[in-house]
Amino acid sequence: MKRWLTLMVALILAALVVPIGAGAQGKDTLTVALASNATTLDPHMHFERAGILVNINMFDSLLHRSAKLEFEPSLALSWKALNDTTWEFKLRRGVKFHDGSTMTAEDVKFSFDRVLEPGSEKKKSPQYGNVRAIKEVKIVDADTIQLATDKPFPLLLERLVFFPIVPKKHVEKVGEEAFGSTATVGTGPWKLVEWKRDQHIRLEAFDQHWRGRPAFKYVVFRAIPEVATSVAELKTGGVDIIRNVNADLLPDLKSHPQTRISTTPILRVHYMSLDMRSAPFDKKAARQAANYAIDKQSMIQKMMAGLGKQVATVVQPPAFGFDPSVPPYPYDPKKAKELLAQAGYPNGVDITMHSAFVDFRPHFEALGQMLTEVGLRTTVKMWDPGPAWNKYFQAEGKATNGQYGSWGNYSVFDADAVLHPLYHTEPGGWIGKHYARVEGLDKLIDEGRSSVDPAKRKRIYAEIQRMIREEAPSVFLWTQNDTLGISRKVAYEARPDEWLWLFAAKPAS
């Protein structure tokens, strides 16, 4: 225990020695620090939280969610279920895209079709699994569309909160590559001005937005991988909002005259995906050993200031289907060593774990140290978030023995939103198609997402949680808070859906 805590302190102290960056911004500009920029601004062609936080301020979806997590009209004014498999949506009239064109039902249909259309694995949208239940998008008239699913799909409205609508003619004119980089056009409160990769994305308020003008004329998203650097920028006015503030820095930002903290529990769950296809994690005993090896409670208290909650599986307490009766793995290094010996490794085994989760690098290092102490001798490989990591993890699907990351459910408060991408092997599984090999799990996930009976769905998800707790396809860790450092010049609060909905941000009075 002392070894990984010492390592954590050393990493944090080293990170604090940083130069100060840009100076204060203009009063009409809101600047946000993100650990990285997404690889594309095309909202359908990535699944990265950093990209989603940018996209939601550039694009609108059919539905919106309030800060109280209630559905609100957005590009759809109203909606109703016609039967168990068909929903009808009335579209808002006169909505303008950033290029001046008017949104039509054709644009809505096109947006779904480009994600759902069959294609090569390389080109297929990574969000396909979210909406693959939709089998037809029908234009009824200029103001009405219908979405028909192959089976009852109780998550449909949840999935539509983040499903941005893009302009058909513009995308076809400029091409997919330009649309994702220099010619990105949506209907959202801000429009693209400039994107300097790995530096910043600059947006300008869209005067014709149907909600009206936002309080800030410009929004800038700066890519700052180092937490200590973003903290220094926040103090000096170079940025106005930062995310994932380290626990040891909270007291300083709370007491600083220019900064404050806003924090709230969110869906995001941390885990280590284990590659069940090859040794040593093809053995259940080895996977269980990894779960017993981690002192989650100490990490939550000492490295996260208590702003998290240990979980028994990857299903988060706020999500529909969460089963509180499933017990989490306790910290038991002795049992971990015994299980590792049962798996055939009495003298331990060498493994490599990977991550591009730069905000939580000290946690990754500590996890590796604790695995090593029970005999899972871990080399931790930290990747820079970006093209190399995406190619390695998404295209090749090989992270040697496993990878550390987190999942935010696309802010969908349902167990399916984490179970399907992490454990469904095909089609539409995201991490599961590479790592998870739990017999019978695909069938249960499909049954859970295709029933409209809430009681039945809860029974299915309870069974899944007991199954994955036993089979341990992941090391189950904790949920976290969204902890924002915010300039006292800005009125804004963290949201429980982990969005940075900056239309709600205003200059502090």
What does this structure look like?
By secondary structure, this protein is an alpha+beta fold. The protein has 3 domains: 19-58 and 177-263 and 483-507, D-Maltodextrin-Binding Protein, domain 2, CATH 3.40.190; 65-172, Dipeptide-binding Protein, Domain 1 (Dipeptide-binding Protein, domain 1, Alpha-Beta Complex); 265-481, Dipeptide-binding Protein, Domain 3 (Dipeptide-binding Protein, domain 3, Roll), CATH 3.10.105.10. The chain has 17 helices and 19 strands. The protein has helices spanning 2-15, 49-55, 105-116, 128-131, 156-160, 168-174, 176-179, 227-236, 250-255, 284-292, 296-303, 333-342, 361-373, 387-396, 416-423, 441-449, 454-471; strands at residues 29-34, 63-65, 71-73, 76-83, 86-91, 134-141, 144-149, 190-196, 200-205, 218-223, 241-242, 259-274, 308-310, 349-355, 376-382, 402-407, 474-487, 490-491, 506-507. Strands 11, 12, 13, 14, 15, 16 and 17 form a 7-stranded mixed β-sheet that branches. Helix 15 (416-423) runs antiparallel to helix 16 (441-449) and helix 16 packs antiparallel against helix 17. The chain is globular. Mean pLDDT is 91; it is low at 9-23.
